[in-house]
Fold this protein.
Amino acid sequence: MPTCGFSVPMRAEIDGMIRKGMNRAQIIAFYRHKYGEKVLSAPTAEGFNLLAWTMPFIALVLGGGLMVLLVGRWRSNPPSAPSGSKPAGEPSSFDPELRRRLENELKERR
């Protein structure tokens, strides 16, 4: 903001530094020392800042890899049948009376 209470004095201070012969890197270093990294529009890609910039992407890659691994395991190991059930090839026992009632009800609904 060109007329905010912070920018007007800072611009005057920067003009004074330029008149003293300070270059861009020296002025930025002065303000980094005075205010810290928050004075920059974008943090530098050094030290902890580099970790802060890359950590979300690293987490996404690791999470995606974990999901692929788990889905692969689930697909290769189908759930086992309950211990009391018969294998799929064998017909299950049924009650002939229940079967007759079911067939009668289906005939009545047609």
Observations:
- The helical segments are 7-19, 24-35, 47-76, 96-109.
